[in-house]
Specification:
The complex is a heterodimer of chains A (about 110) and B (about 110). Chain A is mainly β and about 110 residues long. Chain A is built from no helices and eleven strands. Chain A has one domain: Immunoglobulins (Immunoglobulin-like, Sandwich), CATH 2.60.40.10. In chain A, strands 2, 4, 5, 9, 10 and 11 form a six-stranded mixed beta sheet that branches. In chain A, strand 4 and strand 5 form a beta hairpin. With about 110 residues, chain B is an all-beta fold. Chain B has one domain: Immunoglobulins (Immunoglobulin-like). In chain B, the strands form two sheets. In chain B, strands 2, 4, 5, 6, 9, 10 and 11 form a seven-stranded mixed beta sheet that branches. The chains are: A mainly beta (about 110), B mainly beta (about 110).
Chain lengths: ~110, ~110
């Protein structure tokens, strides 16, 4: 069965303290891995799509990387405004038009 | 550019009452449309998706239903709400695999 697992469940960082979030997946024939940011009470905001192992994407302090089994979202020198829940998602095996989401990592960045 | 709207933003309804949530998309044609529910502190649960007018796929058996009367309009309904229907309802649109979400509706069933 396809699975998307995110770790840690929650992460507390001090401003400027870099770290990584993990998204591991078990699907056959990956057709993309998607990262989203969700602020409390709002809909998820699309961040990145990664399609193949070795691919990297960057946006401000965020960098997403992809291997054959997992993806990492690296946060460099985070600021309090980076506090949010970060979700990853993959299309399930053999199914078009849908995404399977992980349960997310809740990131809090403090001063 | 594309824009997705949902309304209402918040809703408080008694058990047994009907429900209608609406979602519309602007700036794109023939999008895939999705309804998700997110319980407090939990992940996104796909409820329904549609690849075209009148085409609805249901993911989870429940007392909810969905309809797509127009290309860019998606409606989530219930005839009688249950307490367990409380949650944050999200509409999304997509062209291929990427999905873009609306602002959500917070539903509280009392």
């Amino acid at each position: 069965e396809d699975q998307v697992t995110q770790s840690p469940e929650a992460l507390r960082l001090q401003e400027g303290e870099s770290s990584s979030l993990n998204c591991s997946y078990t699907v056959s024939g990956l057709r993309g891995l998607f990262w989203y940011r969700q602020d409390p009470g709002k809909g998820p905001e699309f961040l990145f799509t990664l399609y193949s192992a070795g691919e990297e994407k960057e946006k401000e302090r965020l960098k997403a990387t992809l291997t054959k089994k997992e993806s990492f979202l690296h946060i460099t020198a985070p600021k309090p405004e980076d506090s949010a829940t970060y979700l990853c998602a993959v299309p399930p095996t053999g199914t078009a038009s849908k995404l399977t989401f992980g349960t997310g990592t809740r990131l809090q960045v403090t001063l | 550019s594309q824009t997705i709207h949902q309304w209402p933003a918040t809703l408080v309804q008694p058990v047994g009452s009907p429900l209608s949530l609406e979602c519309t998309v602007e700036g794109t044609s023939n999008p895939n449309l999705y309804w998700y529910r997110q319980a407090a502190g939990r992940g996104l649960q796909l409820l329904f998706y549609s690849v075209g007018i009148g085409q609805i796929s249901s993911e989870v058996p429940q007392n909810l239903s969905a309809s797509r009367p127009q290309d860019r309009q998606f409606i989530l309904s219930s005839k009688k709400l249950l307490l367990s229907d409380s949650g944050f309802y999200l509409c999304a649109w997509g062209a291929t695999y990427e999905q873009y979400f609306g602002p959500g509706t917070r539903l509280t069933v009392t």
